[in-house]
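Hello, quick one for you while I still have it in my head. A protein chain has come my way and I'm curious about its shape. I'm sending you its amino acid sequence along with the backbone structure tokens. I'd be grateful if you could look everything over and explain what you see. Here's the protein in full, and shout if anything looks odd to you:
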Amino acid sequence: MDALAHELALLNSQAKRCIAMLGSRHVAMTTAYLVELLASALAREGHSLLTSGSLGTNAAVVRGALAVNPRSLTVVLPQSLSRQSKESRQQLEPVLHLIEKPEHDQLSLQEASRLCNQEIIQRCDQLICMVFHDSHTLLETAQMAEDQCRLVSVLYFD
């Protein structure tokens, strides 16, 4: 019951929050545009946004936040910047708060992503997770956030 009261208080609060937005790499253009609009709206309201550096959903978050308030965005990479795709590196150039994890370069991308998501959850008040029903790593992240009493919204693409 305390967790429910805490979540309701967060939802009703006008305070600025640190909101993590994570999601699938594989999204339709129209879906990516909706994510971008949501990130823009949250940044415009003064919230801090956290995401990772992959393509798809996370890239849409980056575009949305950068368009409105670049200072509102922090990107935590699962590995070093050099391990990211050329397209991702170009998009991340204007990001003011970029955290690299070169110590994870020897890990598989899946394991590095899991550790990255853990760090993002530790830094946020709320998680908005946009997934498919078979997005196991992201669904684990949402469960982890719930276990840590974060406000969690899971939106399914399928």
Remarks:
- The first strand starts at residue 18 and ends at 23.
